[in-house]
Amino acid sequence: MKLNTLSPAIGSRKKPKRLGRGCGSGLGKTCGKGHKxxxxxxxxxxxxxxxxxxxxxxxxxxxxxxxxxxxxLKEEIYLSDIxxxxxxxxxxxxLKDAGLVRKNIRAVKIIASxxxxxxxxxxxxxVTKSVRKMILDHGGTIN
Length: 143
Description:
3-stranded parallel β-sheet; 4 helices
């Protein structure tokens, strides 16, 4: 093999379109751009969604919805999930270690779904009125 014999593989290098080289080429005169209009001209660009001055679709339709960034840091868990835990002192860290809440959660609230059959001590966790009553009835405490 010699350096002066090297060449690209057949078909790997496509020849460019030769625009404006006579009508026999198929791309003469208007060079494949058709007759007149914005797209035929130099710099004939319009932004995505442009409808010729008509109010664009994304602006005609009403906006809706809102996702609270604070809500992404809060979570609710069921009372029955607390009953399944082996620990009696339950904190946010215990719930994260058990896999009941995501690692980035900052606030947890226990809601009354299911029952509890043991005394637990809750620290730094919010509860509903019915959950508070159930925990206190079974000898638990809430801090």
